[in-house]
Task: structure prediction
Amino acid sequence: MGVKSVLRGGVASELLDRMVRDGGIGAAVKRRGWFGGFMSVIWLSYLVGPIIQGWRETDQPKASLATAALLIYAALIVGSFIVFQRNDRTGPLIARPVDRRIWPVLAAMTTCSAGLMALLGAVALPTLIFVSVIAIFHMPSRESGYVACTVTLAMLLMPVALPSLSGVPFYVSFVPALIWVARQFGLRGERLAELARRQQAELAIVEERNRVARDVHDILGHSLTVITVKTELAQRLIDVDLIRAKAEMADVERLAREALAGVRDTVGGLREVSLRGELATARTALAAADIDARLPDSVPDTRHSELFGWVLREAVTNVIRHSAARHCTVMVTATSIEVVDDGRGLGTVDSGSGLSGLRERVRAAGGTLTLSSSEGGVRVRATVPE
Result:
């Protein structure tokens, strides 16, 4: 790669892209690791002043060792954020075992920190904080807690045992413990967020199952009811009108095929119901059950055509199954549909799973479904907002 292309893209970004360009861990995850390591190293910049002062005071061997220790320390921090960066796909709820490779890293960091303290004095004591930071971000809670407590005790006791390390405010020693506590709150938030996502996914699955159950019930309940009625009619007509009996059985075969196709489409999420189609089906079904059907010849255009189709399908199915009615009337407006029969009344119709599913459909559209008895018959009315 030429110098011009490097300069055009930016030296830093080009180097980062090279370092994260592999298939082991996602590039986005690694970039976040580089960013975390870079921000941690920034905090080490406060040691640059004492090292420069050592160079100026002609204490070059000591300054050289301090420089090397600081560079190694920074490299260990950046490397740990890259190597031990958690893959986001594992999720925060999955318990991760301790990666044994982190122990040599922590030991090397502790050695570098001790070297910096020996070369620079008390000003390097806070470098121990980074040992606990690496443990907190890349180890499970319990193990990282042990490391944080150990570092806190070391920072409290070392100035007492070694007066050369005194001078650092004592409250700095509690920074590792505070970082560990803050990290636990963060992990708890991640766990709660993950739990919420899983619950939402489970609710979506349950809702989809309920949808399929409603659709299958509505399709099969209606179709099987009509098939039963037509089969009974064909049996009565065999000895009276063989031609019509054959026609009825042909309709039974057609309805069975349509029901099978409807179930397949429903499972695939492709089932479509229209009010006009259901009116035509209702006319045929009611005629086969010897029920006088008073249906509208045309219906207004409405965005609730599918919903009204489901209402009509379920209501007509109940009329044929339960009502023993002689007449059935359907009235449709742009915001409502009403099905009335003159049968035996509500009885146990209101407790059926079909009407329960129908209520859910209407409620989901922001409407209401009402059932009432009128002179022994049943009135089913669905209304929706404009």
Summary: The two ends are 65 Å apart (CA to CA). The chain is about 65% helix and 10% strand. Strands lie at 292-294, 327-332, 336-341, 368-374, 377-383. Residues 265 and 271 are 5 Å apart (CA to CA).
